[in-house]
Known about the structure:
Layout: H1 10-37, E1 46-52, E2 55-61, E3 65-72, E4 76-82, E5 115-116, E6 119-123, E7 129-134, E8 143-144, E9 176-180, E10 198-202, E11 209-214, E12 216-217, E13 221-223, E14 228-230, E15 235-239, E16 246-251, E17 257-265, E18 267-271, E19 276-281, E20 284-289, E21 294-295, E22 304-309, E23 315-325, E24 328-337, E25 343-345, E26 350-355, E27 360-364, E28 369-373, E29 379-384, E30 400-405, E31 409-415, E32 427-433
Antiparallel strand pairs: 1-2, 2-3, 3-4, 5-6, 6-7, 8-9, 9-10, 10-11, 12-15, 13-14, 15-16, 16-17, 18-19, 19-20, 20-21, 22-23, 23-24, 24-25, 26-27, 27-28, 28-29, 30-31, 31-32
Amino acid sequence: xxxxxxxxxxxxxxxxxxxxxxxxxxxxxxxxxxxxxxxxxxxxxxxxxxxxxxxxxxxxxxxxxxxxxxxxxxxxxxxxxxxxxxxxxxxxxxxxxxxxxxxxxxxxxxxxxxxxxxxxxxxxxxxxxxxxxxxxxxxxxxxxxxxxxxxxxxxxxxxxxxxxxxxxxxxxxxxxxxxxxxxxxxxxxxxxxxxxxxxxxxxxxxxxxxxxxxxxxxxxxxxxxxxxxxxxxxxxxxxxxxxxxxxxxxxxxxxxxxxxxxxxxxxxxxxxxxxxxxxxxxxxxxxxxxxxxxxxxxxxxxxxxxxxxxxxxxxxxxxxxxxxxxxxxxxxxxxxxxxxxxxxxxxxxxxxxxxxxxxxxxxxxxxxxxxxxxxxxxxxxxxxxxxxxxxxxxxxxxxxxxxxxxxxxxxxxxxxxxxxxxxxxxxxxxxxxxxxxxx
Length: 439
């Protein structure tokens, strides 16, 4: 028997319609949330820009929520909030502060210290006093800027070459300098909540001013005689205050600042030996020739920690991946030929590498042996160590350290035990003769 289909009641139709709308709203919200996490504008949203004296705020108003991009000196950042949450409107502040000029400069800094009585002192190449800096953001906690880090901490990754203290940045043309004048941070966030404020400062007594502001500055070249770091050919690696990305600037003698590499990199590092830059963008690593403006290596998904060339002028890169095996933490290093990515060293659990022109020495945690191989992959020597850990502290020793090195001999201090007992008697010297390996 034929039965007429049951007609939906008006209430049921409304419920189904509301369910469909809720599903569509949920799908749209998920899409927009993903876009928000990638700092992309929302879709199906009304865009407005609000202008302030110190920047702008972009608002994308969607169905029940708002995505805001704060690009002001008083506030930077992003937020995705319900539509009823009001826009934050802190008092506008200028981008570059005006430096005080009427403070007294004590003339008793006889040791020519960088910092004296809360002021920073600047001397020219003839060691004549040329300028000073008075802290702006704190009472006296500012300092001549030291080389900073990025998330990968490449400059201090290798325990053999890690710096106990970062290098201080030196004068530029005896006119300018980088100053770390960071505001005090909320201690409850620890180191993760700390951010730097670095000014590029013109310190001339008759014309003091701040030229630019950055979130960080990095080491490039280092002058051992002056004990100061500086930019390579006055190219400096700095981090933008706007997007927290790294780039490279060039500083002219007249104070003009030119952008050499745009602020779009998660990591930028300079290799003083090869004059190449190691870049990371969108989690892809490569080696870059700044003067030829071209990429000179294959891409790597793992961080590139070093680039060098052997005696035959073949270039290599060292990559690595942080690993945890049981209770052991280490970086699993590998070596590739730079131009074509051909593997040179790909052995499990390599946690230390020494790169030289005629040989490579690598240490694995499997056998605690330091293996010396030439670039023909011939093993030349093995040195048995007591243990393999290289990272150390005040109470632990590394497996070894380099105590002396010449063209023909490398002398290693091999530690007897992991725990520190008496540093004066903790290691034995082992010398390796590499002179015949060049034949």
